[in-house]
Specification:
twelve-stranded antiparallel beta sheet, alpha+beta, single chain, globular, two-stranded antiparallel ribbon, 7 helices
Length: 353
């Protein structure tokens, strides 16, 4: 048993964990390790927004163009393709990309083929919306957790330090916070508020959002490809509908509890066909707001309850794979830009008059 915090990220604690050193978790999970030379990562969400079936072909073509750009020099070490329908009924297709070197990401962004396309006036005139949401947390500011040690998702693919042993900080409320290295010395309290340029986001323009200190971001996913029989039925008929209800609540009503944006997305293959993998991505005003929802809100209590029924019914022998990555972002680790998107998109949500 070892700590989720890698040795090179440990420091003398001034803040206590929620459990004692002899705590034993009820089941095993693992963390991805960042190589010692990886001081900061980049998580980029590159979206295409469309409304109505007549624009879906054009949106798919735009997504494929974005994905092809990842093959240029200094492109990401890993990317996923995903789709979801937002609260306004718009289709959103997203390419999610990960770099383990912010300098390489900056060079890639400055590549004329990438930069000229993004800045082109045609982005405002082709009937689609576009967005870039870039989070670049330092190694001390994020954590990962996986239910199996043999297959990573998301940022875990590019961290470069292999996999931990079974970790201690999980299976109790507050373990998410305890896995973030910064929690050793920092309460990670949010301050300030989001701001938009221009001040009132509307379609037909480019909008930049400035994030405030300690915005919390979570990507939490599941893959049911390998499930069969009873386990597959339990997931598809009990656990997934409960999960979807919670995700829809955060999408539609999350602002009142501190959730700026939530998307429940399904993975696509390189041809745009759906895979048996999904994940929620949400941005929160603070880690504390996310924790309150997880610990006490009826929608998450239902999700947790359905998962515990699932694992107990299967005697903890699962083919379902689950994971998450959680970041607490400083102001300089956030960049959000939206082109011709409706005002409830992403971090713009709730800022329109």
């Amino acid at each position: 048993m070892e700590s989720a915090i890698a040795e090179h990220l440990k420091c003398p604690r001034t803040r206590h964990r929620r459990v004692e050193d002899d705590y034993t978790p009820p089941y095993p999970v693992w963390s991805a390790r960042a190589a010692a030379g990886v001081g900061q990562v980049v998580m980029g969400y590159f979206g295409v927004q469309s409304r109505g079936p007549e624009l879906q072909g054009r949106a798919c073509a735009a997504l494929m163009k974005i994905a092809r750009g990842f093959g240029l020099a200094d492109g990401p070490g890993h990317h996923d393709l995903a789709h979801f329908v937002d609260a306004e009924g718009c289709d959103n297709m997203i390419a999610i990309a990960y770099w383990n070197d912010p300098a390489a990401f900056a060079r890639w962004c400055a590549t004329p083929e990438i930069d000229d396309w993004w800045r082109s006036p045609a982005r405002l005139d082709d009937g689609l919306g576009y967005f870039r949401e870039i989070a670049s947390p330092r190694a001390e500011h994020y954590e990962t957790m996986f239910s199996t040690p043999d297959r990573f998702e998301g940022v875990g693919v590019v961290m470069g330090g292999g996999v931990s042993g079974e970790i201690r900080e999980h299976g109790y409320w507050g373990s998410m916070r305890d896995r973030i290295p910064l929690s050793q010395t920092d309460a990670m309290v949010a301050s300030g508020s989001r701001s938009a340029i221009p001040a009132t986001p509307v379609p037909g323009q480019r909008v930049r959002i400035a994030g405030h200190p300690n915005v919390a971001m979570i990507r939490s996913g599941q893959e049911w490809t390998d499930t069969t029989g009873k386990e597959r039925t339990l997931y598809l008929e009990d656990m997934e509908p409960t999960l979807r209800e919670g995700m829809d609540f955060l999408r539609d009503q999350g602002l009142a509890i501190g959730c700026y944006s939530n998307r429940y997305m399904h993975h696509l293959d390189a041809r745009g066909a759906p895979l048996q993998k999904s994940f929620g991505l949400s941005f929160w005003r603070s880690l504390a707001d996310m924790e309150r929802w997880a610990e006490s809100h009826p929608t998450h209590v239902a999700i947790f309850g359905s998962f515990m029924r699932y694992v107990q019914e299967l005697n903890f022998e699962l083919q379902l794979r689950v994971y998450h990555e959680v970041s607490v972002l400083k102001a300089d680790e956030q960049s959000y830009e939206y082109i011709n998107c409706h005002p409830r998109t992403g971090l713009m949500n709730g800022l329109a008059a």
